[in-house]
């Protein structure tokens, strides 16, 4: 592993992994066989199969589990930082209003998680409306209103022409 950049650049690499020698990639992949990530292989395999992967390799499963674990940890750290900032701002406001500020508990709220996920490119908030998401009763009412409008149009035209 203590190679110079010149030695590493002359060694053979895998396609799509430039700058990392094949031997280092192979050593990393062999360590994945012994690794036990927090996310169980069964759970990762379930979602891989739902995504269309027929029989995932154990190393691929564990690599995806490790990446997912790292992502969740990163989001949790960011959400905690947001919660601490919010708590400090609230403590200042409470102190100004005369409240007791001895409560030092940090409570993670949905707002904190949403802010952290937004930094990672995930939008947690639902859009204000959904196309085709009306309740069946509303759809029936709308259909009846359209039918009534269609039936009334010819009679209104007749009245106007008279």
The separation of the N and C termini measures 95 Å
CATH topology, anyone?
Histone, subunit A
Roughly how many Å is the radius of gyration? Answer: 29 Å
CATH class equals: Mainly Alpha
Residue share in β-strands: under 5%
Structural class: mainly alpha
Give the number of domains: 1
Helix-residue proportion: 55-70%
Secondary-structure element pattern, one letter each: HHHHHH
- Specify the CATH architecture: Orthogonal Bundle
Shape: flat
Mean pLDDT: 80
Flag low-confidence runs.
none
Strand count, sense and closure of the main sheet? none
Q: How many helices does DSSP assign? A: 6
Tally of extended strands?
Answer: 0
Tell me the quaternary state: single chain
Subcellular location: Nucleus
Organism: Ostreococcus tauri
GO molecular function, one term: RNA polymerase II general transcription initiation factor activity
Keywords: Nucleus, Transcription, Transcription regulation
Explain what you see.
The chain is mainly α and 162 residues long. Helix content is 65%, strand content 0%. It is flat, with a radius of gyration of 29 Å.
Compact description:
The chain is 65% helix and 0% strand.
SSE order and pairing:
Layout: H1 5-10, H2 22-34, H3 41-50, H4 58-97, H5 110-119, H6 136-161
Q: Which structural traits does this protein have?
A:
mainly alpha; Histone, subunit A
């Amino acid at each position: 592993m203590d190679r110079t950049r010149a030695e590493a650049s002359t060694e053979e690499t895998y396609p799509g992994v430039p700058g990392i020698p094949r031997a280092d990639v192979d050593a990393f992949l062999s360590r994945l066989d012994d690794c036990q990530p927090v996310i169980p292989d069964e759970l990762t395999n379930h979602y891989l199969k739902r995504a269309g992967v027929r029989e995932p390799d154990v190393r691929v499963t564990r690599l995806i589990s490790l990446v997912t674990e790292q992502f969740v940890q990163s989001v949790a750290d960011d959400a905690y930082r947001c919660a601490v900032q919010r708590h400090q701002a609230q403590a200042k406001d409470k102190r100004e209003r005369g409240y007791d500020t001895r409560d030092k508990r940090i409570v993670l709220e949905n707002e904190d998680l949403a802010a952290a996920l937004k930094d990672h490119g995930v939008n947690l908030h639902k859009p204000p409306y959904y196309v085709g998401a009306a309740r069946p009763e509303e759809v029936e009412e709308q259909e009846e209103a359209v039918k009534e409008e269609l039936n009334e149009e010819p009679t209104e035209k007749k009245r106007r022409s008279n």
